[in-house]
Fold:
Amino acid sequence: MQSRVAVFALLMLISSSVQADWMRFRGPNGSGVSDETQATPAEWSSQKNLKWKVALPGPGSSSPIIVGDKVFVTCWSGYGMSRNEPPGDQKDLRRHLICLDRKTGKVLWDRSVKPVLPEDVYTGMFAEHGFASHTPTSDGKHVYAYFGKSGAVAYDMEGKQLWQTIIGDELDPRRWGSSSSPILYKDLLIVTASAESEAMVALNKETGKEVWRQESTGFNATWGTPIVVPVNQERTDLVIGVPYEIWGLNPENGKLRWYCEAMDTDTYCSSVIAGKDGVVYGIEGRGGGSIAVKVDGSGDVTKSNVLWSGRDANRIETPILYDGRIYFFSRGIVNCIDAKTGERIFRGRLESDSGSTASEEPARGGGFGGRRGGGGFRGSDYSSPVAADGKIYFVSRSGETYVIKASDKLEQLAVNRLTSDEEDFSASPAIDGGDLFIRSDKHLYCVGK
Structure:
């Protein structure tokens, strides 16, 4: 038994070292937390602590990833480039995977993919986010991107295309599209093709061949990215939030292991997060609601494994767990709750660069409740917070990055802006080596001391 525990601990250590780079949406296992020891900056501007700024060949809402000395990011071009102009012809649409030098920002290569037609029309949420909302992922040897109807594509580090697999070609009747980012588990690339096929699909990462497919109407209204949660030496759960429920699946074959009742909402936009103790947390926005559930078990675990539930509302962003506290942001408000109990620690308004003053509200149970749960998403912030060096970073859609100290009271350290130009900042930052990589619809920025 002791040898099996030792092997499991070694595997976890190896997994942690492999994830030292920021190689998927929100870094190691989607946590948004950098475990590096380098100091990260609290303040920057277009003249201070900006290492480089690079124009991108097109817009996108996907986040950058860092793999060794390379940065990868996706964007699109050729169709639907501006709300103020006719979208053009869909046959000219191209999705791009861009590889840049991590130190200088120099574009090393740019690979484009032709569309599978007909594509979703550039209107509605496509006018909000366009055709590059999925963050790529990497195993350190290859890089993988998901381009909706154009499929999953694999490249080597020099930009050679290895394979392309179409996962689904359905159009979204709501014209919202999909945004769940691909993840890796062992030799599998797992993709949530919500709008394209109402399915979660696993591909062999070396060949692109389909290994398993789990279809469900629940995926149709799911935009979050799944995470993998180790349970014990023999078991790992693949966990995702879907409308009304949290699901735990077997990543080897996609079969449902357990589920629990969760938020009373017909969409699930954010991603769940996990603590080191095997507890998964979710805070959803459109309908509101929060939950903590212990992984493991089988079937309906609502009564046995739900540790607490609340009425906190998060709008769209994925929350972040750091030092036992869960932080989430909405409409200029930062919230902090206790991960063990779900009780509010603080809630306060952030100070913007226009000069309004940050203020903290007294700690009480609960959160926003349903008051901010309804309504549409236009004008919302889409970036999710990240953390490093005892600081929480949150980028608003208008380009303000708020920096607060990770503590049990609201202490705002700075609010930073990289440009006075009109740019859309909907991506979550990446962190590597003490630097932050922040992308807008026009540029990729590297910020560091």
Q: What stands out?
A: The first helix runs from residue 2 to 18. The first strand starts at residue 50 and ends at 55.
